[in-house]
Write a structure and sequence with these properties.
295 residues; eight-stranded parallel β-barrel; 10 strands; globular; binds NADP nicotinamide-adenine-dinucleotide phosphate
């Protein structure tokens, strides 16, 4: 891997920890972060917008309470979405902004909120249709030189958008939605591209955002659940572990960005990284999801 930031095998997503989910108080954040670190899940995934621009600060408050914790973790955060919120009244509509000024201003705000002097990995959250790779690379260079970010990557970029950006500044990842329920990245060149460049893919919503645990599964989910049952017995694992093992089977190294707020589920995810799915079992799951045999 070319990346300079060492990622943990499971990345802990922060999106649902605050007001967009668990509603943690400072003590709960601190306990959760410390438990994750103890298990070896040391990389945390943020975005400025999470919790309507409040989650980074709440997480930062927990770090302030526990000196030494910051040095044990890697922080990913994202910018580039002008999200409408009462905390950002200047945003007239939801839109994307990858201008140099906006990127630098966003990083300054994230650093302050998180109470840290550097962000390990900055991602552009979504491709801005008006993006200028030269301008973005200028912003990245300035932030790099000021030691405010260590590495840089993108999220939700198509292979063409990734190359456009990667020609200007070496990217460390593309964070995209990948799960057994969202397989586009396997077929549209996104995973192949990171494989070619020997970069890890980060898979957001690796458990489909919880859809596999819904009481009213759709037809595709029902097929997946049916195929998964005997495999969970065979590999002596839970459904969430099997779904993560499905991603981990890919040779490029798909890093799941999990969204739980429960430490026992983080532990289960770390354990899932030890499961080695047999090739035919992987295809049993793939074909169940597709609803048909491969050609
Ligand atoms: N780059 C992007 O554009 C983007 C977009 C979306 C998300 N993300 C990142 O990806 C992270 C993960 O996304 P996600 O939250 O959608 O991921 P996910 O891990 O697919 O889904 C998490 C949800 O599934 C539930 N869940 C997990 N295991 C379960 C189980 N065994 N039984 C019942 N429910 C279970 C969790 O509830 P519990 O809390 O109860 O476990 C939580 O509500 C986010 O935190 C964020 O960092 C990035």
């Amino acid at each position: 891997m070319q990346t300079r930031v060492p990622f943990s095998p499971v990345i802990v997503g922060a999106m649902r920890l605050g007001s967009w989910g668990a509603g943690f108080d400072t003590k709960q954040y601190r306990t959760f972060i410390e438990q994750c670190v103890e298990m070896g899940a040391t990389t945390f995934d943020h975005a400025d917008i999470y919790g309507h621009f409040t989650t980074e600060e709440e997480f930062g408050n927990a770090l302030k309470e526990a000196p030494g914790l910051r040095d044990k973790i890697q922080i990913i955060t994202k910018c580039g979405i002008r999200f409408q919120s009462e905390n950002r009244p200047e945003n007239r509509i939801k839109s994307y902004d990858s201008s140099k000024e906006y990127i630098i201003e966003s990083v300054e705000k994230s650093l302050k909120a998180l109470g840290t002097d550097h962000i390990d990995v900055l991602l552009i959250h979504r491709p801005d249709f008006l993006m200028d790779p030269d301008e973005i690379s200028e912003a990245v260079q300035i932030l790099n030189e000021q030691d405010k970010i260590i590495d840089f990557g993108v999220s939700n970029f198509s292979p063409a958008q990734f190359d456009l950006m990667n020609d200007k500044v070496a990217l460390c990842t593309n964070q995209v939605e990948v799960s057994l329920g969202q397989r586009k990245a396997f077929t549209d060149g996104t995973i192949d591209q990171c494989h070619r460049y020997r970069l890890p893919i980060m898979a957001w919503s690796p458990l489909g955002g919880g859809r596999f645990f819904s009481e009213n599964p759709d037809a595709e989910t029902e097929r997946i659940l049916l195929a998964a049952k005997p495999l969970c017995e065979k590999y002596e694992c839970s459904l969430d572990q099997l779904l993560l093992a499905f991603l981990n089977a890919h040779p490029t190294g798909i890093l799941p960005v999990i969204g739980t707020s429960k430490s026992q589920r983080v532990w289960a995810a770390m354990e899932a990284m030890k499961i080695k799915l047999e090739r035919e079992d992987w295809y049993i799951l793939w074909e169940a999801a597709e609803g048909k045999e491969v050609a």
